[in-house]
Structures are given as structure tokens and as C-alpha cells.
Amino acid sequence: MGVKFSKDLRRVHSLIPSIKKEYASRAPSVIKRAIRTDMSAGVSPVKGKRWQAYSDSYRKAIASGRFQSSKSVAPVNLRLTGDLRRSLFVRVKSGGFFRTPLRLEIGFDDFKADIHNRLGASKRKVIRRMLPTKTGETFNRKITKVIFDKLKDSVKSVVQKLSRR
Amino acid sequence: MPEISKEIKLDLTDVPAGERDNVKRDVGDFVINEILRSVAGGNSPVQGEGKFKALNRNYAKDSKQGNNTANLQLTGEMLRTDLDFKLTPAGIRIEVKGNSEDRADGHNQLSSKAKNWANKIGFPKRRFIPDGRQGFTSAIKSGYRGIIEDAKVIEEEPEIEDTSPEPTPGTGAIPENDIRDTTSISFLLSDEAIEREIIRELKRRGR
Fold it and tell me: Do B33 and A147 touch (CB under 8 A)?
């Protein structure tokens, strides 16, 4: 016989730590992939922001083979050495047993992230937003959906495991 | 100049009037991003158009570092600067303006002039703006419908009666600490949000 949960909020609360654990183990890689995929396609991970095209001079420099041969003129993917992409981290912080809110930390360890995201690249100081670090900014729809869909998946998985018992 | 545009009509009846323009902007932003995502992978965002024909090997070698995926981005101007959206009374209009209109027409072949030109020289159609009868792919459509759904006024969910036993004295909840990190981007996925999801999932399973 199954345990009745539907109105027993204490039992509902008792599932939360397992869900947080599940989320912490599953979500980071998926979120990271979603951000990297968007960057590869030249889509800003930040809602409402567009990455502008490379300047003529930079495009010419790429075309002349000044950089690695794999560097492409378009789409604008901010990829030259790959260090920036590799430095992306997604961490889930959660108190687990204690009722600390689930918290995501997303960032880049590479110094170039701050140049693109805040300071501005090249003489023209072109800003290409990669993370929603300003008040009021959020991730774009797709990434936000991945973040919350993963939470739904974790809930499903924990509830499913419980149902099998 | 050819008109390279497509209006997307949106049913915003159940969206509060003050929110409608914001929803239109969200949809516009989403569709533009989806076009960029599709095209970057050499796929058309237009229903029924499928994958773009690969680039000619010599052209790819000369102009695209040997990459023969047609991503319609030689300089980036057409998709990065000139592709945009505007709000219309019925929804939004995705359009290409500025210097890239002719180039965009050549790829999309929406005008009869562009069709004739393409037929003559055998230039492949790589459409990223639907014509009058076409729409965007179903994934894009369901994406922007989701944005509208999220913005609709929803009826309050019925309150859940808590039938859990009375708490034992001295076992109250531990207060939450605000451990927001000001140096990194953080998302708070609250316990209340998780609780809502659990209840939804239990309801879905008829538990």
C-alpha cells in the first residue's frame, strides 16, 4: 500500500533534501552544456542581449590566419583558445538536510570573461554579455528552462523512487 | 527593396494588458535566438525546410576556413545587426532591415526577383524567415507559446490542507540563512518552489 502524501506537508518536506542532492548531482553538467551550446551558436546566455559581429579588422585578422586555424569569423562564439569555455563552472550549493535554499553558482574562472561581460573588448570596448550579473538580468529562456526543468526531473526521479518502495 | 519579414500573431487574450508588450518582447527575443541557434548548426528554423545545403567545397575553403556548414554568416552583419523584431498590434514581426535586405532575400528567396535570380544561377534556398504560408518549426512555436502560457493569469491553485501530525514540541524548522554570494551569479531555487513541484508531481501520479 502506498503512503499518502498529497496532504501531508511534513512528508512532502521530507523529500526536499533528496531532491536537492539529486539536483546537485545532475544539473551542473546539463546547465553547463546549455550555456556552452548557446555560446557556440553566438547566442548570448543573457536574456535580451545580442552579441554583435566581430569588427572588420578582427575578421580580416582571423581570415589571414593570424590566429589558430580553427578560429571562425562567424558565428561570434568568443572562442579562440577554448580557455574561456573550459573555465565555465556551475556549482550547486545546498545545505541538504538543513533547510538552506538550493543555490546555483555559475561563472567563469578565466579573466577574459570579465572583459567580454563587463569591461568591454578591444579599443571599441565591445561588451558581449555572458552572465546575467546585473540587477534585473536573467538567463535567456532556453537556459532558464534547462535550470528549472532539471529541478522538475529531480522531483520526478525522487518521487518515482519512493513509489517503487 | 524586398520585404524580408514574417509577422507572428500572438493570442494574448489572457495575458494582463500591462504585460502584453513585455511578452511580445520576450517572444521576439526568443525567436531571434532560436533562428541564430538553428542557422549556426546549418539548419533552417522554418517548418519543412530542413537542413541547409552544405557550402561548395571551394567556397568553404576560401571563405570559411574549410567549414562547409552553411551558417549564413560571412561577416555576421545580416544575422547580428540587421535581423531584428518589432512589435505589431497583433504580435511581432521578425525582419531583416538595413544593408542586408537583398542578401537575405537571396537566401530566403521570398520575392519573385530573388526566385528568378536563384533559378538562373542555381543558388540554393536557405530560408530563415518563413514565407506567407509557412511558419517556424514546431519547437520554436511551442517555445513561444510557453512564454505566453507562463504570462497568463492563472487561477490560484487550491489550498492544500496540511494533515501532517502536530509537531513534537522542540522540533521546529531551522531558520534559513541567507548565504547569497555577491561575487557570483546565483539562483535561488526555493524550498517553496520544490514543494510546489513535489505536490504537482504527486497530483500527476494521483497520489
Answer: no
Q: Cell numbers 571563405 correspond to what residue?
A: B63
More confident residue, B33 or A93: B33
What's the CA gap between B74 and B108, in Å, rounded? 16
Q: Provide Rg for chain A, Cα atoms.
A: 20
All residues of chain B having their beta carbon less than 8 Å from the beta carbon of residue A98 are 174
Residue A160 has pLDDT above 90, yes or no: no
Instruction: Calculate the CA dihedral of residues B29, B150, B135, A46 and round it to 10 degrees.
Output: 20
Query: pTM of this prediction?
Result: 0.76
Domain map of chain B by residue range?
4-151
A100 in a structural domain: yes
A residues 115-134 near B, CB within 8 Å?
Answer: 131-133
The C-alpha cell of B99 is what?
A: 544593408
A18-56 pLDDT per residue, tens: 899 899 999 999 999 999 999 988 899 999 888 887 777
* Residue B73 near residue B79, CB atoms below 8 Å: yes
Alpha-carbon gap, residue B97 to B99, rounded angstroms: 7
Residues of B in contact with A27 (CB under 8 A): none
As to burial, measured by CB atoms within 10 angstroms (0-12 exposed, 13-18 middle, 19+ buried), residue A143 is buried
In B63-122, the residues whose Cβ lies within 8 Å of chain A are: 63-65, 67, 71, 73-77, 79-81
How far does B204 lie from chain A, in Å, by closest CA?
10
Question: Domain count of chain A?
Answer: 1
CA angle B94, B97, B102 (to 5 degrees): 110
Which chain A residues touch B23 with a CB distance below 8 Å? Answer: none
In a domain, A39, yes or no: yes
What whole-number distance in Å separates Cα of residue A128 and Cα of residue A11? Answer: 46
Residue in this structure with the C-alpha cell 521578425, named with its chain if needed: B94
- In this predicted model, what pLDDT tens digit does every residue of B60-93 receive, in sequence order? 777 766 777 777 777 777 887 788 999 999 999 9
- Domain of residue A36: give its range: 9-164
Least confident of A7-16, A95-104, B2-11, B169-178: B169-178
